[in-house]
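Revision sheet: structure tokens.
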Amino acid sequence: MFRSARSCFTTRAVAVGAAVTLLAGCAPGHRDRPDHPDHPDHPAHPDRPAAAGKPGATATADALDVQHYGLDLDYAVTTRRLTGTATIDLVARRDLSRVVLNLRGPQTLSVRVDGHEAGFRQGGGKLVITPAVPLTAGVSAVAEIRYRGTMGTPKDANGTPYGWIATPDGAQVLSEPDGAPTWFPAHDVLTDKATYDFRVTVPRGRTAVANGVPAGHHDHGGRTTWTWRARDPMLSYLATVGIGDYDLTRSTGPQGIPIIDAVDRHLTATAAEDTRAALAEQQAVLRFLIGRWGPYPFSAAGAIVDDDRLGYALETQTRPVYATDVDDTTIVHELAHQWFGDSVNIGSWRDIWLNEGFAVYSEWLWEDQAYGEKYGATLDASAADVLALPAGDPIWKVTLADPTRAQLFDRAVYDRGALVLYELRKTIGDQDFWRLARTWAGQRTQTGVSTADFEELAGRISGQDLTGFFRTWLHSAGKPSI
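Predicted:
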């Protein structure tokens, strides 16, 4: 995710001849958005022990495995009314008499499980379903949930829009960390990926975009239904829908990847020109990242560029969402997340430095190549910018491997996360560093990785005892002495 706490996260003075110029090749800074520290059901809340594995147990975070979401959505732009049916293919990991999903905002109208009416109650951000017949461990089941709600502009604890956000010409969805339940009933945890089908019906003349690849659209009366299929399993907070007056374009990237972009037709002339120039860099960025981290992990790429009031970008899987302020470095950040955060995902929000650190380090590598010779934006200069911050700066007050819930999206997670990788590369050498990074990025089938996993892999590949290194850079607050 790109945030906007600073006007430029690596602004530096560069001497060019006798002149001193501010580097213009850096992207908007990161918006410090705390999560919901007082919400006991937030994904970042310390993991609770699972209920005993016995018949009649209630679903907890590890009790369900959702295989697929079929989301049939009908949205009225003028009234902001969303009517949805979620068809959820799931498997209980143990015998269950109740199933617990996350849903807040829209109200549940009815629930059926395996074709039978099911009891339900909704409250406190939860949808508790009581099937007519308890679920048996290991046996597939299908829950069909009908719901409806008038959408607005949900806000996080810092007052920033997220989740399903109603816009003047449609809607935009950015759900990190727990906004998915504002628009569909979700098993909203970091350990459960699923595939998705989206059928989104909107007023004729509007375009609906989602993750994955398009599977056609058709008009009926004054409405149009757009279908998208996302066959790459993803976490619920990475699912997105964009509804608006878009230009929809398609090109082919490296590995034959379809790059599908949806751009708001009503951008100002300057924003439209900047957006076209930035999106034209996607193929080069993908080639660059593939060269560093290995094959692109998904079957599609692209972008949604929409409402500039949002002020931040998000790595929604296969189709990142950008505000109108988009440039090449922002694109590098969000596309790097396709490897780090989307494909290889953390199992706890406490380990978020693994997502943001690799994304910012990717920016540093890109700037080194694209702007280093001309503007002095070298990898060393990027690291030096962070290391130049005084010991009393708030950036050094965060313990990266164990941030508080209010620090999850702190600047330290981003910039110091990248600095850890920079220092690790110096410590273990280029050969072992790139082997480590590509091995880590290649763990596509593993869900819920951790800082401990990364430390173990680094030690195993390098053959070094890195306990002291990680204690200094990850497990301690305060500015390290170098």
